[in-house]
Amino acid sequence: MLLEGKCALVTGSTSGIGLAIARAFAAEGAAVMLNGFGDRQEIEAIRAEIEATSSAKALYDGADLSKPDAIDAMIARCTAEIGSPDILVNNAGIQFVAPVTEFPPEKWDAIIAINLTAVFHTTRLALPQMRAKGWGRIINTASAHSLVASPNKSAYVAAKHGVAGFTKSVALECAQDGVTANCISPGYVWTKLVENQIPDTMKARSLTREQVINDVLLAAQPTKQFVTPEQVAALALFLARDEAASITGANLSMDGGWTAA
User: N or C: which end of the chain has fewer CB within 10 A?
Assistant: First the structure.
């Protein structure tokens, strides 16, 4: 077991990329704390399934990441019940699509709070114990939109560019502490976040669902394939290995060639 004795806190892990990452870490022996929204019975079934199919302890905390006090309580609970996070995966994200002149200010605030500001709060709370142990991994799910932009996604693009810059700064600050900080920047992954933005894009661009998928989403990816959550999880798992100790401050693209052009 590569991660036996480690604790991983994965935000936004009740579905999609985060859940795939949590499962991958648990399979390698790490205790995991799940976080995210959804039906409580379904989440409990996921938590129980992770424990049943691995040797790992799995907890769930429904902290609203737009609230700093809730993040503080989640980190404290994780530390008390399964240990302070050795691996922090900031994966939670929300999206809204609209032209900037029509972008609701409350949507902007929510996206920045959950996609960017929460990354700051979890990191500032988890990093001291990582430093004390002399080992830690901070893995942030960014996006191809941390490197390039798309229209009608001003808040999301701003937040993901911020995540990439924040990750680099943290990597430099803890470069001699045994702690690495990296971000993974997937292209379009077939998750609820991507699926849920299709109606807004249909409306904003007057397109059909099929046109959004083929001419908007996959138009940017030369492979013409969605990235899978399991592919992202495999890269996250590698970054948690000791062999990845010299990878820090990196923004690792996994986008089917989107940002190669």
Answer: C
Please spell the DSSP secondary structure of 97-126, one letter per residue: ---GGG--HHHHHHHHIIIIIHHHHHHHHH
Residue written as token pair 């795939």: 20
163: number of Cβ within 10 Å: 25
Contact by Cβ (8 Å): 7, 91: no
Is the pTM here over 0.90, yes or no?
yes
The Cα–Cα gap between 127 and 144 comes to 26
- Across the beta sheet with 136-141, what order do the strands follow? 58-61, 31-35, 7-10, 87-90, 136-141, 179-186, 251-254
Residues 203-230 pLDDT 10s: 888 999 999 998 888 988 999 999 999 9
Which residues are known to be catalytic? Answer: 156
What are the residue ranges spanned by the domains of the chain?
7-187+228-260
Read off the pLDDT of residues 160-193 as tens digits, 9 standing for 90 and up: 999 999 999 999 999 999 999 999 999 999 887 7
Q: Which class would CATH give 7-187+228-260?
A: alpha beta
- Residue 204: what pLDDT? 83
Phi, psi of 4 (to 5 degrees): -60, 135
**Is the pLDDT at 254 greater than 90, yes or no?**
yes
Q: How far, in Å, CA of 178 to CA of 99, rounded?
A: 43
